[in-house]
Specification:
Layout lengths: L1 E4 L5 E4 L2 E2 L5 H11 L8 H9 L7 H16 L5 E5 L2 E5 L4 E2 H14 L3 H12 L13 H27 L7 H10 L4 H13 L3 H19 L5 H11 L57 H12 L6 E6 L6 H12 L7 E5 L10 H11 L11 H12 L5 E7 L2 H4 L10 E6 L9 E4 L5 H12 L1 H6 L1 H10 L4 H13 L5 H14 L5 H15 L3 H10 L6 E2 L1 H8 L3 H13 L4 E6 L2 E5 L2 H14 L4 H23 L18 H7 L3 H22 L2 H10 L1 H7 L2 H17 L3 H17 L3 H14 L5 H17 L3 H18 L2 H17 L3 H18 L2 H17 L3 H17 L3 H17 L3 H18 L2 H17 L3 H18 L2 H17 L3 H16 L1
Parallel strand pairs: 1-6, 7-10, 7-11, 8-9, 9-10
Antiparallel strand pairs: 1-2, 2-3, 4-5, 12-14, 13-14
Length: 1005
């Protein structure tokens, strides 16, 4: 049997002998497939994983040659490499991969019923590691995977420590824990485990010393105090808590060591609150229904099943026919269980039985963001999202509710892995292949159905016509949705006798008896309500059924119907009244509505039956309204400098009054509408000309940037770019290349950014200056970041000239500011101040607030370079205030970081280090490597000022490593100077000399 090994150097063994896998690049291709063994990997993805942005000429031919050779090596061992339409799949057969074995064993260890079994499984899992994963391979994708796996490895190590502490093995673990604490000095969970082990060995004094050492380190380096769990453990030691004895017993609590959500910084990359150091807690459950009749026994049983002991995370599958009330049941159960899951509740409607089911990739992106992972650090591939999701939930207590699931394949990657997590799934299918506990929901019995109707109509009406009430419930088949729709119609018509509806329902059911039994009652109830609505309301329901996504606001219906906002809201009130439309949530900008999937299906069927010649026109109006609103929201925020309005592409728009009402807070509007706008753009890319759909994707740039939704930005605009290129739309393609250049610049992917800007300029050849100004300025900025100053100056000057011709003040300010930054970085401070002062004047005159913040930040840098720290601090504070008011946290952090630096230089060491620590958290949250490197450099300088060369050296080494990765020679030389000073203060003069020599060489180059 063949055994693949990835947890160390790449190798394969069969029968105790090594199997030759070819040279290194061919081995990388195999490793890229093994990570996703059993899943298809497209050729483009393989090329990216193996070569990143440096794919050789005829790269596909080279890849195919490697794959062909690998087939010849692997097939004799029963491993098949299969090519399908969606990519290459490695079918392992009986072969094994140590990485997958590690994950499986770790998962089994978490679910183990006994600690002895958990210890054995944990040791076996960790024993598979021979070195760092993919040792010797150095590509960006493999490096990112290695970092993720190191987080999984550390999590497994800490879980094994907890098990061994419960088993009383503390005396054999102290040396191991001391070494780990030295390697992870700021990880409070590691420190807590060491403190606990020392205490149980009777070494309380040493335990207290370790706590004090950790407290000082956290205060000095991050400006924070230890988390609650570590402080609690410290207090128990001081109080002589008898439970901290040398014999912990089998039920020893895990709270002795800090849990993952109490660490100051989580190795998995999750976001923490920069003030409290706690991870964000998602609360995604929809509001519980106030009218929920019956099901008490079933809810109690669900809570019992999910509360019963058992190994690993528990999963409950709630099944039943459409309309039986599974969603309401799951939400009610989730709220009942919420207190058991203090780390949060996740919820997603997978729309498994609709035309547009949610895919795991998108749902995982939403879950990761809810767990605090910013868009820029959400993995771009499904496998990376799955691994990060599992890592985040491994040590948490989270409830995951997955509604409307079509089958096990749709839900498998969304199930939590943490032993203290649980999942509730609802589906119309039994999913026999899914290992879980099951709870079938039956229709309501007659008494419960009558109780529901009585709650809706009041006891007087139902008691006055008991036979008709019973007939309605029976005709509705006991399905809550059908009873709900029929009851809503009666509630809206207080003068109608129940007998009228009972007879009409019976007649309608006979007309529909050829339909599937599970839907007859619901369809009959819907058909009856539909027939009794006015024609405009019927038309509205048909149009709403064509909307993409799970929810919508009233303005979307206004566009579909070609009416104003008030008229659309009135129609929606009518539909809500008869329960064909539900109020889903109340967002910051108003009500969001939802359609039950059966109502949506019914509406689409009626649209097909009644003719849908108006559908295309309505869809264009919806696209036009979306484009117009998004472009105006972006223009109001005025963050971007492209300077090309998209509104001329909008075929329809709301009135100025309605538009002003919706966009009173443009950022709040976008937060509510983000997913809907993405869905509209993607639907339009499938159905309409590329230009308006690409225009909407382009208009969302500012909103994506301010909100940090970098993964949405990249996915949507790449798709729009492909559509524009395929249709020959050079204008749209040029704009999208420019926007993607801006994104890849923010994400520190400079080779990609240069390519996007250069492609934008090629496509804009012969077009007006508006199309070329923004791309030229973006190109200049990347060259400046890379220290290529002469090229950057030429491009900035050209961008400024084009911006003047186009009347683009934002771009002119951006280019002028770039020239000032080059002056500043080359030591021409007075010239830089002149440029920045002009930028500040122009920005204020034009009302360009982001330009004003940028000019103030750069003036702060100039004052800092001159040693005028009070003036620098004042400029930075003004910049922070402007960016914060705009809702742009990342840009605010650009100023806050340097404010922390000048506070340290003014002697306010603690406040300065605290601000720097908060900046470091924010940069890591956004995945901004440049900002992280700058903050680490500033922290190193702060430690030097405090006389701590060892801590300074660690921070400076981290900054040097990042600037090497980024490729910025100018700032790399600055960080090397700081590292040399740290070496000198630490007494390592040879290292200081080598470091200074390298910095000098970089400056001469």
């Amino acid at each position: 049997m063949l055994e693949f090994r990835l947890l160390g150097t790449l190798e394969a063994r069969a029968g105790g002998r090594s199997v030759a896998l070819g040279h290194t690049r061919q081995q990388c291709v195999l490793a890229a497939l093994l990570i996703d063994a059993g899943r298809p990997v497209p050729a483009d993805r393989l090329l990216h994983r193996v070569w990143d942005d440096h794919v050789p000429h005829r790269g596909r031919d080279t890849l195919y040659a490697y794959l062909s050779r690998l087939r010849r090596v692997l097939e004799p061992h029963g491993v098949r490499l299969v090519r399908r339409s969606d990519g290459y799949t490695l079918d392992l057969g009986e072969a094994t991969v140590d990485l997958h074995r590690f994950r499986d064993l770790s998962d089994r260890a978490r679910r183990a019923a006994a600690d002895e079994q958990a210890e054995a499984l944990g040791r076996e899992a960790l024993g598979l590691w021979r070195d760092s994963a993919f040792a010797g391979v150095d590509t960006p994708w493999f490096n990112a995977q290695r970092q993720l796996l190191e987080g999984e490895r550390l999590a497994a190590q800490l879980e094994l420590v907890e098990v061994r502490l419960r088993l009383g093995q503390h005396d054999r673990m102290v040396s191991e824990l001391v070494a780990r604490a030295e390697a992870h000095p700021l990880d409070e969970r590691v420190v807590g485990q060491l403190v606990l082990a020392l205490c149980r060995c009777g070494r309380q004094a040493e335990a207290l010393e370790e706590y004090e050492r950790a407290r000082r380190r956290l205060a000095d380096e991050l400006g924070v105090d230890p988390g609650a769990a570590l402080r609690r453990l410290y207090g128990r030691i001081l109080a002589g808590d008898p439970e901290l004895s040398s014999d912990p017993g089998p039920a020893a609590a895990r709270v002795d060591a800090p849990s993952a959500d109490e660490e100051a910084e989580d190795d998995s990359g999750a976001v923490v609150n920069p003030v409290t150091g706690r991870q964000l807690v998602p609360r995604l459950l929809p509001a519980d229904l106030s009218l929920f009749v019956g099901r008490d026994a079933e809810v109690d049983e669900a809570c019992r099943l999910l509360g019963a002991g058992g190994p690993g995370p528990l999963t409950l599958l709630v099944t039943g026919p459409a309309g039986v009330g599974k969603t309401a049941f799951a939400v009610r159960t989730g709220h009942r269980l919420a207190s058991r899951f203090p780390d949060g509740q996740l919820h997603a409607d997978l729309r498994g039985f609709g035309d547009e089911p949610a895919d795991p990739f998108t749902v995982l992106g939403a879950f990761l963001r809810a767990l605090g992972v910013r868009g820029g650090t959400v993995p771009a591939e499904l496998t990376g999202r799955i691994h990060l999701y599992r890592s985040l939930l491994a040590q948490r207590q989270v409830l995951v509710v997955l509604d409307n699931v079509s089958g096990a394949q749709q839900v498998r990657d969304l199930l939590p892995s943490g032993a203290r997590c649980a999942a509730v799934i609802t589906s119309r299918t039994t999913m026999a292949e899914l290992g879980c506990r099951r709870l079938p929901l039956d229709v309501l019995d007659s008494a419960t159905g009558l109780a529901l109707l009585r709650e809706m109509l009041g006891p007087d009406r139902t008691d006055a016509e008991p036979d008709s009430a019973r007939s309605i419930v029976e005709t509705c088949g006991g399905l809550p949705l059908a009873v709900w729709v029929a009851g809503a119609r009666l509630a809206a018509r207080a003068h109608w006798p129940l007998a009228h509806v009972a007879r009409a329902l019976a007649d309608e059911e006979r007309k529909l008896d050829e339909l599937a039994v599970g839907h007859i009652a619901v369809r009959a109830s819907l058909e009856l309500t539909y027939q009794q609505m006015a024609a405009p309301t019927q038309h509205a329901l048909r149009m709403l059924a064509l909307l993409p996504g799970p929810d919508f606001a009233a303005w979307a219906l206004a566009a579909l119907l070609d009416v104003n906002l008030s008229e659309a809201e009135a129609v929606l009130d009518d539909l809500v009244e008869v329960h064909l439309v539900q109020i889903g949530s109340i967002g910051a900008t108003g009500i969001r509505y939802q359609l039950h999937d059966l109502v949506r299906l019914f509406g689409r069927e009626r649209a097909d039956r009644d003719g849908h010649h108006q559908d295309h026109t309505a869809a264009l109006r919806l696209l036009g309204a979306s484009l117009h609103l998004a472009d105006l929201a972006a223009d109001t925020l005025s963050v971007d400098f492209q300077g090309i309005s998209q509104t001329e592409l909008a075929s329809w728009r709301l009135s100025p009054t309605d538009t002003g009402h919706l966009l009173a807070d443009p950022l709040a509007w976008f937060t509510d509408e983000r997913q809907f706008l993405i869905d509209v753009a993607e639907q339009a890319l499938d159905r309409t000309k590329a230009a308006p759909a690409a225009g909407l994707a382009t208009a969302l740039t500012t909103l994506f940037q301010v909100g940090g939704h970098f993964d949405d930005w990249e996915r949507l605009q790449n798709r729009a770019l492909k559509a524009a290129l395929n249709s020959g739309d050079r204008h749209s393609a040029a704009k999208l290349h420019r926007c993607l250049g801006e994104l890849t610049t923010i994400l520190d992917r400079y080779p990609e950014a240069l390519n996007h800007f250069e492609q934008a300029l090629l496509l804009a050849e012969g077009q007006g200056p508006a199309y070329r100004a923004g791309a030229t300025a973006g190109l200049a900025y990347v060259h400046r970041l890379l220290g290529q100053y002469s090229t950057a100056v030429l491009h900035f000057e050209k961008a400024a000239e084009l911006a003047r011709q186009a009347g683009n003040v934002n771009c002119l300010v951006y280019a002028t500011n770039g020239l000032g930054v080059i002056d500043l970085e080359q030591g021409r401070v007075e010239a830089a101040v002149e440029q920045f002062t002009e930028c500040l004047r122009a920005s204020r005159a034009a009302g360009y607030r982001p330009g004003e913040a940028q000019a103030l930040r750069c003036l702060g840098q100039s004052h800092r370079a001159l040693g005028a720290y009070p003036a620098a601090a004042d400029a930075y504070r003004q910049a922070v205030a402007i960016s914060t008011n705009l809702g742009d946290r990342l840009t605010a952090t650009h100023a806050a970081c340097w404010l922390g630096d000048v506070l340290v230089r003014q002697g306010e060491h603690r406040n300065g280090r605290r601000l720097l620590a908060q900046s470091l958290w924010t940069y890591r949250e956004f995945g901004n490597l440049w900002g992280e490197a700058a903050t680490l450099y500033a922290l190193a300088e702060a430690q030097l000022a405090a006389g701590r060369p060892a801590l300074a050296r660690r921070r400076a080494e981290a900054a040097v490593s990042l600037w090497r990765q980024i490729g910025s020679h100018t700032w790399l030389a600055v960080a090397l100077d700081t590292l040399a000073t740290a070496h000198t203060q630490a007494g390592d003069h040879p290292a200081a000399t080598r470091t200074r020599d390298e910095a000098a060489e970089l400056r001469r180059a």
